[in-house]
Amino acid sequence: MTYAPTSIDSLTAQFEALHAERERTWPAAQLQKNIDQRQALVRQYAPDTHISAGEKLPEFALKNVEGGTITPADLGEAGTVFIFFRYAGCPACNIALPHYQRTLWPELKRRGIRLIAVSPHVPEGLIDIETRHDLGFTVASDTDNHFGNALGITFEPIDKPSPPPANWIGDLTGTQSWILPQPTVILADKDGIVQFVEVSPDWLKRTESETILAHLTRQQDAA
């Protein structure tokens, strides 16, 4: 039976259920390959290779699904949360983004904080995930992973079949490469100074909304 998350499930619980379903339905070799890739990324993860709190965001120019461009000049006056995800067809991303829509976006909107979900998937491909989940926040494309690379959050998978299969990552992103961003949450102020960053090398373990909101509350209390 396909797992259907409820509005009160944590991301952790939803990803555990997704993995349990795969244990029941995937061939053993396919499942092990998925596990090995995620474990390898965790082993390789080095916090000193990506942007840190206190540093300024690099220049960026993201393309939203309506065809507009988002630059540092468009950062929210009360701050901006960037959520980096892999691509529109990623099962874990299709759990994470609607979860953030339910549990994070309403409070960010109340506080006047902008939320931008970012993927290297080409803009026309991102329309699908935005409309499928009726997302109220901005969904934008990071062309050629320029922003993700500058932030130090991208990776290449271990398994890179040659020739690549139809509809492979390089076709979806338009990069003709396997490079993707690791799921990442970044909170920046209106001047682009990073206040919070969390990178999740294992894409089945991502930042909970409560973690982001707790940081915002601590930041507000300290102001």
TrEMBL record:
Gene3D superfamilies in alphabetical order: Glutaredoxin
Gene Ontology molecular function terms on file: thioredoxin peroxidase activity
EC number from the UniProt entry: 1.11.1.24
Root EC class: oxidoreductase
Residues in Thioredoxin domain copies: 51-221
Pfam families, per the entry: AhpC-TSA
Domain of life: Bacteria
Keywords of the record: Antioxidant, Disulfide bond, Oxidoreductase, Peroxidase, Redox-active center
GO cellular component: cytoplasm
Any GO BP: cell redox homeostasis
Reaction catalysed by this enzyme: a hydroperoxide + [thioredoxin]-dithiol = an alcohol + [thioredoxin]-disulfide + H2O
Family recorded in the similarity comment: Belongs to the peroxiredoxin family. BCP/PrxQ subfamily.
PANTHER family (UniProt xref): SLL1159 PROTEIN (PTHR42801:SF7), THIOREDOXIN-DEPENDENT PEROXIDE REDUCTASE (PTHR42801)
Free-text function comment from the UniProt entry: Thiol-specific peroxidase that catalyzes the reduction of hydrogen peroxide and organic hydroperoxides to water and alcohols, respectively. Plays a role in cell protection against oxidative stress by detoxifying peroxides and as sensor of hydrogen peroxide-mediated signaling events.
Protein name as annotated: thioredoxin-dependent peroxiredoxin
Lineage of producing organism: Bacteria, Pseudomonadati, Pseudomonadota, Alphaproteobacteria, Caulobacterales
